[in-house]
Design brief:
Number of strands: 2
Oligomer: single chain
Number of helices: 8
Number of domains: 1
Distance between the termini: 53 Å
Strand content: under 5%
Bound molecules: zinc ion
Largest sheet: 2 strands, antiparallel
Shape: globular
Order of helices and strands: HEEHHHHHHH
Radius of gyration: 18 Å
Helix content: 55-70%
């Protein structure tokens, strides 16, 4: 058991180190019209198509919550459910890579319904639009990965994000347990890596890091209905 945790921990530290400076925001999803625009020509978060503006801090907060919800609530769940359905148990555990930008954008759409109260059909329409519009984006934001995602799975995707938000996955106990383990180990690596990197870790800082461990990775719990105010106002209904 300890060996397994140590092994998972080292691979997670490796992952955290790898993605440390990759908070890629070159392509931004407009929360008004669901267009995807390039930020490098436009360092303020204002959509060139519909003029919808958003504060960078709020944008990052929502994207981050969507990213962790997709990562643990959809990606890991799919991987482990596949093993349960195929062999009746989980035999392989591995670190999956972070969700691609398009999946994070789809996660935002799902959360706008799950937390923000946007109508279900509108959320589905926004997701389809994100997938379609991503095809015209020249940068790699995960188009290859999304090409394998069937639109028939949109409802399952929304359902999984909803269940993750409710912290109640309707799935095998083993899957629940593995996801929770991954989340805690991922958080541990996330939080401890910057502390371990310093030559003299300070005790208080270390203790604070441990405290944060139990709350991190649930960014989704910090989102409120008002965070989604005026979302998709510029989409024809
Ligand atoms: Zn827009």
């Amino acid at each position: 058991m300890i060996e397994m945790i140590q092994e998972s921990f080292s691979r997670e530290v490796f992952r955290v180190r790898k993605v440390e400076n990759q908070d890629n925001l070159s392509q931004v999803l407009c929360f008004g019209c669901a267009s995807i625009y390039n930020l490098s020509n436009n360092d303020i978060f204002t959509c060139p198509f519909c003029n919808y503006s958003i504060d960078e801090k709020i944008y990052r907060k929502i994207i981050k919550a969507a990213k962790t919800a997709v990562y643990y609530g959809y990606d890991y769940r799919r991987v482990y459910e596949k093993q349960i359905n195929g062999q009746g148990k989980i035999t392989q555990r591995f670190a999956i890579s972070d969700p691609v930008a398009i999946f994070c954008f789809m996660g935002v759409a799902a959360l706008s319904g799950v937390i923000g109260g946007a109508a279900y059909d509108l959320v589905k329409k926004v997701i389809v639009q994100i997938i379609e519009k991503s095809k015209d984006v020249p940068d790699d934001i995960g188009q290859a990965k999304i090409a394998q995602f069937s639109k028939d799975n949109i409802e399952i995707f929304i359902q999984y994000i909803r269940e993750y938000h409710q912290n109640k996955l309707v799935t095998a106990d083993e899957v629940n347990l593995e996801i929770e383990k991954e989340r805690i180990i991922g958080n541990l690596a996330d939080i401890l890596y910057p502390v371990l990197k310093k030559s003299k870790p300070i005790k208080d800082e270390f203790n604070e890091a441990i405290d944060r461990l139990f709350n991190k990775g649930r960014e989704i719990d910090e989102l409120k209905i008002k965070d989604f105010e005026s979302f998709w106002n510029n989409i024809e209904k």
